[in-house]
Design goal:
With 578 residues, the chain is an alpha/beta fold. It is 34% helix and 17% strand. The protein is built from 19 helices and 22 strands. Helix 13 links the parallel strand 17 and strand 18. Helix 1 crosses helix 2. The longest helix has 26 residues. It is globular.
Length: 578
């Protein structure tokens, strides 16, 4: 097919968008503005192959794109105008880099002759995001020449690959445009043979390897496997691989609450979910000392576990296909830069556990059963609305395969402490790259935005994390799907109550806890969002067992911040006292 272009910006943007379409792009977030007009029009004219999503707030839009990329494991494009618009992408850029999520940023800019001369809405956008992108460059100003279009096509292909290899992350393309920005004739008269021009562009497949298991692992009688923070593309395959390793070595799996392993408990018979509480017992810390540790993915959140690993100082193998240094403990570490799914048992491995190793495994499993019973018995008797019980209860309530976004601060910690292993295939998502509370709502909406399923999603969050991203509610008119927000409202930052600064008030309450005294019922009315105040655990159970298919809903659980913090300080250490 031959297309005739009368505007060079229209031609340039068409090549950008069509190249991305051939590479497999299917979703783009478009933030409003004038300088990005050619790109916006090209994405809107692409048809059904690429879904364009208009989002007013660039920060919210960037986190929505982040959530979408997390859920699909495919790059998502972000488009914005010139000036400070691109700067609002920065928090999501940092999170995407730290959590290896593929994003492709297209920031429109004024041409070179309009920079450094006080032209309006112009800042220095070259290398705007510092060292956070996997790769970044500025494109040439548009020209209607076939050689330059070839350059443009190849640059877009390279940018797409660098979003994903050797690890997921951000690529930033700064794109200058001269007037006219609207698709009016500017003297260009260019015919493009689109079939020939785009011939040969195919999505790049993911590389695969098979890595033989180190034979030395078989020698150790007291080994543990740590399943850390992870959002694998295929959770079931990931959990099966960890289970196979565990059963082969006869080692327990200490599974972080943000690991899918806790939601595939039927696959992993040696799953340990209460390790943080177990390790608060000084005697057990000593008795359970391992000789060797296999860490899969990022280190769990638990400070108790981290301190114990420092004290143990055992040989540790880290299995993660990242090329980053992911050992914050700086221990005796060997980093195998592979995925756990790529481990090759070679058909010759089988369980050869000694009596000593079996006893070590049984001790871990016995402690798991005892502490888990303590947790269950305690929460079954707890009728008062408390922060900690919410995570425990939700782990048993959600429909199978529910996507669950867990906001930072206390929710992720309560999930690690109390999330009960299940076989519900719940899909946990989170922003633990930089551990910030910004963009939580927009990320969650991006994760559950979908066309082809009625499955709703859930977000577990505190009040401050939700308030930090209320512009995410502006997405409600374009959002397709359902999100139930379980809001733990303790009127402030509960996590700070666990820190030494809580003993110094003033300034603690005003400058650390920062209560906002917001009426969330009124807030939801403002944004046209459904709202319900939860007054009992039974009411929460009824609302979560079957999720709606459309819209956004807030279920507010009012709690007492001071009392909950005191409960944690008193009870966490007692649960492992048998």
């Amino acid at each position: 097919m031959h297309l005739v272009f009368k505007n060079v910006n229209q031609l340039w943007s068409y090549v950008v968008v069509s190249t991305l379409k051939h590479l497999g792009l299917d979703f783009a977030v478009l933030c409003p503005g004038s300088r990005s007009t050619p790109l916006t029009l090209a994405f809107c004219q692409e048809g059904s192959d690429i879904e364009p999503m208009p989002i007013l707030d660039e920060r919210s839009g960037a986190f929505f794109a982040l959530g979408r990329a997390k859920a699909t494991r495919k790059p998502v494009v972000l488009v914005c105008t010139s000036g400070t618009a691109g700067a609002n992408f920065y928090p999501a850029v940092i999170e995407a880099k730290e959590s290896c999520v593929p994003l492709l940023l297209l920031t429109a800019d004024r041409p070179p002759e309009l920079r450094d001369c006080h032209s309006g809405q112009t800042i220095d956008q070259v290398k705007l995001y510092g060292n956070y992108p996997n790769w970044q460059t500025e494109l040439a100003t548009p020209l209607a020449e076939i050689q330059m279009l070839g350059y443009l096509r190849q640059t877009i292909i390279h940018a797409w690959k660098r979003c994903q290899f050797p690890r997921g992350g951000v690529v930033h393309l700064n794109i200058p445009f001269r007037d006219p920005l609207a698709p009016v004739a500017d003297g260009t008269d260019f015919i493009l043979d689109t079939e020939e021009f785009f011939r040969g562009i195919i999505p790049t497949p993911l590389p695969t390897v098979n890595y033989p298991l180190p034979l030395e692992w078989k020698k150790y009688e007291r080994g543990i496997i740590i399943a850390g923070v992870a959002q694998p593309q295929d959770p079931e395959k990931y959990c099966q691989a960890i289970s196979c390793l565990s059963r082969t070595l006869q080692w327990p799996v200490l599974a972080e609450g943000l690991s899918p392993v806790r939601n595939y408990a039927d696959l992993c018979p040696y799953l340990i979910s209460t390790y943080d509480l177990i390790l608060r017992n000084p005697q057990l810390r000593q008795e359970l000392t391992p000789q060797i540790i296999i860490q899969i993915g990022e280190m769990p959140t638990s400070k108790e576990l981290r301190h114990w690993l420092v004290d143990v100082n055992a040989q540790r193998f880290v299995i993660d296909n990242s090329f980053e240094n992911i050992d914050p403990l700086h221990g005796k570490t060997v980093h195998l830069k592979i995925s756990v799914e790529d481990l090759d048992f070679g058909g010759v491995w089988h369980s050869m556990a000694s009596l000593c190793s079996q006893q070590y495994l049984q001790q871990w499993c016995a402690m798991e059963a005892a502490v888990r019973k303590n947790i269950d018995d305690m929460f079954l008797k707890t009728e008062e609305l408390t922060e900690s019980k919410a995570a425990w209860l939700i782990s048993q309530l959600l429909p199978e395969n529910t996507p669950l976004f867990i906001a930072n601060s206390m929710p992720v910690r309560d999930v690690e402490f109390f999330w009960k292993p299940n076989s519900l295939r719940i899909k946990p998502y989170f922003n633990r790259g930089a551990n910030g509370i910004d963009g939580s709502l927009s990320t969650a909406l991006g994760i559950v935005h979908q066309h082809h399923t009625s499955l709703g999603g859930v977000m577990l969050t505190g009040d401050l994390a939700l308030l930090h991203d209320t512009n995410g509610f502006l997405l409600r008119n374009k959002f397709l799907g359902h999100l139930t927000i379980v809001l733990i409202n303790n009127n402030g930052g509960g996590i700070f109550e666990m820190l030494p600064i809580a003993n110094f008030d003033p300034p603690f309450e005003d400058f650390f806890a920062t209560p906002q005294n917001i009426n969330f019922a009124d807030l939801c009315v403002t944004y046209g969002v459904d709202y319900e105040l939860i007054s009992s655990w039974h009411q929460l159970e009824e609302r979560l067992r079957i999720l709606p298919s459309q819209g956004i809903r807030v279920l507010e659980i009012p709690t007492n911040r001071k009392r909950d913090a005191q409960w944690r300080k008193q009870c966490l250490g007692k649960m492992s006292l048998l």
